[in-house]
């Protein structure tokens, strides 16, 4: 909220991942109740800092989620497979990125959620659930005064109960911003999630000969949900 995609465009050079194309969208300009009705780039109107469902404009949330889905489709139209697409966002943008990730009808590569939250009882909890096995990186500053770290922790625990796979990282002394350690963790997450050379598919013979634990590890690394029932 209040920032533009250009404010995060430095990340493309910082990542140093030449095979990854980065897209930095800007939210539409809206009056924001929390800021006295002042108009600014915002993914949705928000009325207070308790981050519950009743302070958010859910119609605008849905519009923003649909916009991210349009951006995903635009990348697919360029020939990029859905499972090679990662969505991400900071604060309000992270909330929208999570919901776009959760409601995608195709399996995405993953999600980066920074200094954000997911309100309990969100309608997106009951969405397609196609991406439960795809990885989520959650970064949060311990000293965040805007979206307290406890909100991030509670959101992570809630998402894990829903069956999502998260790597939760907290950064001491970091407020509602980013830091070099977090940026390096984002780079490492994307390098692992979107390797320059996609892994070679296993042959049927290799699968038959593979121990169950190793097969399980490879499936999880490929963002395939694995049940414990027969493991």
State the main characteristics.
231 residues; alpha/beta; 6 strands
How does this structure look, described?
This protein is an alpha/beta fold and 231 residues long. It is built from 7 helices and 6 strands; from the N terminus they run αββαβαββαβααα. The chain has 2 domains: 5-198, Rossmann fold, CATH 3.40.50; 202-231, no CATH class. It has helices spanning 10-15, 58-77, 92-103, 149-162, 180-193, 204-209, 212-221; strands spanning 29-32, 38-41, 86-90, 110-114, 135-141, 165-171. The strands form 2 sheets. Strands 3-4-5-6 form a 4-stranded parallel sheet, with helices on both faces. A hairpin with a 5-residue loop joins strand 1 (29-32) and strand 2 (38-41). Helix 2 (58-77) crosses helix 3 (92-103).
What is the count of helical runs? 7
Mean pLDDT: 90
Shape descriptor reads globular
Strand content: 5-15%
* CATH architecture level-2 label of the largest domain: 3-Layer(aba) Sandwich
Q: In whole angstroms, how far apart are the ends?
A: 44 Å
List segments where confidence is low: pLDDT < 50 over at least 5 consecutive residues: none
Radius of gyration: 18 Å
SS-based class: alpha/beta
Largest sheet: 4 strands, parallel
Please state how the strands of the largest beta sheet are arranged side by side.
Answer: 3-4-5-6
CATH class of the largest domain: Alpha Beta
Assigned CATH superfamily of the largest domain: Alpha/Beta hydrolase fold, catalytic domain
Q: How do the SSEs run, as a string of H and E? A: HEEHEHEEHEHHH
Total count of strands? 6
Number of domains: 2
- CATH fold name of the largest domain, please? Rossmann fold
Helical content class: 25-40%
């Amino acid at each position: 909220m209040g920032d533009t995609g250009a404010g995060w465009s430095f990340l493309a050079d910082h990542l140093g991942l030449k095979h990854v194309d980065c897209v930095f969208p800007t939210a539409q300009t809206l009056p924001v109740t929390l800021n006295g009705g002042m108009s600014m780039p915002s993914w949705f109107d928000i009325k207070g800092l308790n981050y519950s469902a009743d302070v958010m404009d859910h119609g605008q949330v849905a519009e923003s989620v649909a916009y991210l889905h349009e951006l995903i489709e635009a990348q697919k139209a360029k020939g990029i497979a859905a499972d090679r697409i990662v969505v991400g966002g900071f604060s309000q943008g992270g909330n929208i990125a999570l919901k776009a990730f959760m409601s995608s009808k195709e399996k995405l590569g993953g999600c980066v959620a920074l200094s954000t939250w997911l309100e309990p009882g969100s309608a997106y909890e009951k969405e397609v659930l196609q991406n439960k096995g795809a990885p989520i990186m959650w970064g949060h500053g311990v000293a965040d005064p805007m979206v307290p770290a406890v909100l991030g922790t509670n959101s992570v625990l809630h998402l894990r109960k829903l069956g999502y796979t998260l790597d939760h990282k907290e950064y001491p002394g970091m407020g509602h911003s980013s830091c070099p350690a977090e940026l390096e963790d984002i780079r490492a997450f994307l390098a692992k999630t979107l390797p320059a050379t996609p892994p070679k598919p296993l042959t049927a013979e290799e699968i038959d000969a593979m121990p169950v634990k190793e097969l399980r590890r490879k499936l999880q690394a490929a963002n395939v949900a694995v049940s414990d029932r027969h493991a």
